[in-house]
Amino acid sequence: MSNIFATIVVFSLLFAFKIPYLYNSIILSVILCMPFLFSSAVLTNLKTLYRTSFFYIALLFLSIIIVFTSFLTIIYGKYDFSFTLRFLFQIAYLLFSILITSVVYYIGSRKKEENFVELCILNAFLLQALIILIAFVSPTIRDIIQLFQDDATVQIAAQYSGIRGLALAGAQFFGLSVGFSIALILATFLYVNNKISTLRYVTYFILFTVAIFFVGRAGLLGSAISLLYLVVALAYDNKIKRVVKFLSFLLGTIAIGCVLFYLLAPVSVKDSVFNYLLPFAFEFIYNYLNKGTFATTSTNTLEGMYFAINEITLLLGDGIYTNADNTYYMHTDAGYMRVILFGGIVGMILIFLYQLYLVSSIRKYLSCLNYNAGNLFYIFVVASLLIFQYKGEVIGFLAIMQIILFILLSSLCLRLKKTPMEDKE
Questions:
Q1: How many degrees, rounded to 5, is the angle at CA 100 between CA 150 and CA 386?
Q2: What is 171-239 written as a DSSP string?
Q3: DSSP summary character for residue 372
Q4: 41: Cβ–Cβ under 8 A, 6 or more apart, which residues?
Q5: Residue 328: beta bridge partners?
Q6: Is 395 left (phi over 0), alpha (psi -120 to 50) or beta?
Q7: pLDDT tens profile 141-197
Q8: Which residues pair with 268 in a beta bridge?
């Protein structure tokens, strides 16, 4: 039961789905953890985390970004604080993540499970993947799930013939696909370090990748990056046999799954998969076969969202993030463009440094705990973020990804039992 409770708490924190009268599930996760504040062990965990350098440096970065972005939009006379609000929310995410991690780590320590917190993250994504698949198969479940989504999400999902908008989450599309991608890289890291079995890793890999089909095909890059990370990490340690074992297990499981799907799936589900899901997820392949080009409607649209700007805007932005009608400034969805249009290269560098600090801190803590492939984990996470940023706002922005990083940092800090304001070198 404690495993289920911990997974539900992490799930509620990560996916921030709408709950009537509670705003969203993050509040639920905090409420569920409140009784644990009577535990001296949990209070000790909280004190440890609130006195570590990563907490203060993260707060410092966020404070600098908040002051800079507020000052910028005021100086320009635009008074658009919608950009700044994203980072104010991150302070709340940081505080809540520390609370939830303190409780989940306490539960794991009682069970004497070394990577309990990390596994709770992966199991939360596993639960989300199962919810997506069940909602796809069952219109009744899909209707129930949509009660916990905002109206805009439901309207967008209605355009995709029942193959999108199936997650019990606030972020449904690109953001959720990036979350699954980061979870896949985390699962790969644990597998490389022999912390999860081949069967468990194959289960994560297949279900996360299938879920990505429904939430956003950009996340398929995350699956490819995870595979590359696996091959590079194991080849570096001369463990090619493990790569062969994993690939054999993976391909065998996929083959069996395809046969069972063909034999057992209802006709309506097969029609949805072959007529809607696969053409959507693999549009680039369908286009190549039919038109001789890998370009998709989204990539063509995205290319048009990168355009020339003047030198002042490039350097310091225009101090505008959203228009009066709540659309994005200059109507661009491109991640790099949105940041530059608001705060220029100066703002982008500041946000990038903040993100690099978080990821590099994880790398350092992994090294202190004698994990293998910590540097590769850092390289592949950063590379993934840079790639995803081309499509949308990810670096320093994306809530689900920042929460994952906050949880990982908090868990690693507790395992290192850090002294106040001190980092173990």
A1: 65
A2: --SHHHHHHHHHHHHHHHHHHHTTSS-HHHHHHHHHHHHHHHHHH-GGGHHHHHHHHHHHHHHHHHTT-
A3: S
A4: 106, 109
A5: 322
A6: beta
A7: 998 998 898 888 888 888 777 788 899 998 888 899 999 999 999 999 999 998 999
A8: none
- For residue 7, give its domain range: 2-264+304-416
Name the residue among 166, 170, 236, 196 with its Cα closest to residue 377: 236
In whole angstroms, how far apart are CA 238 and each of 192, 226, 232, 248, 378?
A: 12, 18, 10, 18, 20
Phi-psi map region of 329: left, alpha, beta (phi>0 left; psi -120 to 50 alpha):
beta
Domain count, the chain: 1
Task: Please state, in angstroms and rounded to a whole number, the distance separating the CA atoms of residues 307 and 212.
Answer: 29
The amino acid that residue 360 corresponds to is S
Tens-digit pLDDT profile for residues 295-322: 777 777 777 888 888 988 999 889 999 8
Cα 406 to chain centroid distance, Å, stands at 12
Answer positive or negative: Cα dihedral of 197, 203, 209, 211.
negative
Q: Which residues, in sequence order, are CB contacts of 403 under 8 Å at separation 6+?
A: 13, 14, 93, 97
Does residue 113 lie in a domain region?
Answer: yes
On whether residue 69 sits in a domain, the answer given is yes
Read off the pLDDT of residues 374-419 as tens digits, 9 standing for 90 and up. Answer: 889 999 999 999 999 998 899 998 999 999 999 999 999 998 874 3
CA end-to-end span of the chain: 37
Residue 402 contacts residue 175 (beta carbons within 8 Å): no
Tell whether 283 is covered by a domain: no
pLDDT in tens, 33-67: 999 999 999 999 999 998 888 899 999 999 999 99
- Dihedral of the CA atoms 195, 199, 201, 202 (nearest 10)? 170
pTM value is 0.91
Q: Is 180 within 8 Å of 205 (Cβ atoms)? A: no
Residue 70 covered by a domain:
yes
d(CA 1, CA 14): 20
How many CB atoms lie under 10 A from the CB of residue 297?
A: 9
Nearest partner of 138 among 278, 272, 279, 4, judged by Cα: 272
Q: What does the radius of gyration of the chain's CA atoms come to, in whole angstroms?
A: 22
How big is the CA angle at 221 (ends 263 and 336), to the nearest 5 degrees? 145
DSSP 381-399: HHHHHHHHHTTS--TTT-H
Please, what's the largest Cα pairwise distance for the chain?
65
